[in-house]
Amino acid sequence: MNHLQLAHRLYKEHLSPEETAIDATCGNGHDTLFLASLLTSGKLYAYDIQEEGLLRTKKRLSTLPPSILSRITLMHASHEDFSFVPPPVSLIVYNLGYLPGSDKKIFTHSATTLASLKEALKISRYISITCYPHREGRKERQAILALLQERGGVTYKDYFISDKAPSVIFITSMLPASP
Q: What's the CATH number where 155 sits?
């Protein structure tokens, strides 16, 4: 099973059709489309900081029926700000790195990813993070794991295969952070 199949299996196991999910880094829209197929009566918010990512996602979703499209909100914004999404949120999905087929100089960074993750830990029951083995991706994965280890009450599984393959970190439960 590759990282994408694993992540999709985890989404399927932890997301009910009527719930709310966030694709924090929609990129080409693959995860957004998969989440939309699971959320047959729920709400989906898809974020990307790049207009190109939103256009690609919109194109990928264009074959969905209007009843599903009306429950998807595309957000041209950083994944640092989930204030637009009304609670409760069941699942937040991150697919870190850069937009495939675009400028590789534009990619997610540890600082913004950690800021986003801190917010996600406050609002979501489950969080899935796919990290890639390029230089910044390795730094992001290490920073994420350090943050999770610092926080008591966070339960997660790191599906790490090798330095050459993407890894999936799946957070299944959190206790509120102490003030």
A: 3.40.50.150
Residue 7: alpha-carbon gap to chain centroid: 10
What is d(CA 8, CA 141) in angstroms, rounded to the nearest whole number? Answer: 19
Domain housing 50: 20-173
Q: For every one of its 179 residues, what pLDDT tens digit does the chain have, with 9 covering 90 and above?
A: 889 999 999 999 999 999 999 999 999 999 999 999 999 999 999 999 999 999 999 999 999 999 999 999 999 999 999 999 999 999 999 999 866 777 667 778 899 999 999 999 999 999 999 999 888 889 999 999 999 999 877 899 999 888 888 999 999 977 554 44
Query: 118: which residues sit within 8 A by CB, 6+ positions away?
Result: 147, 177
Q: Read off φ and ψ for residue 53, nearest 5 degrees.
A: -65, -40
Give the span between the Cα atoms of 156 and 85, in whole angstroms.
24
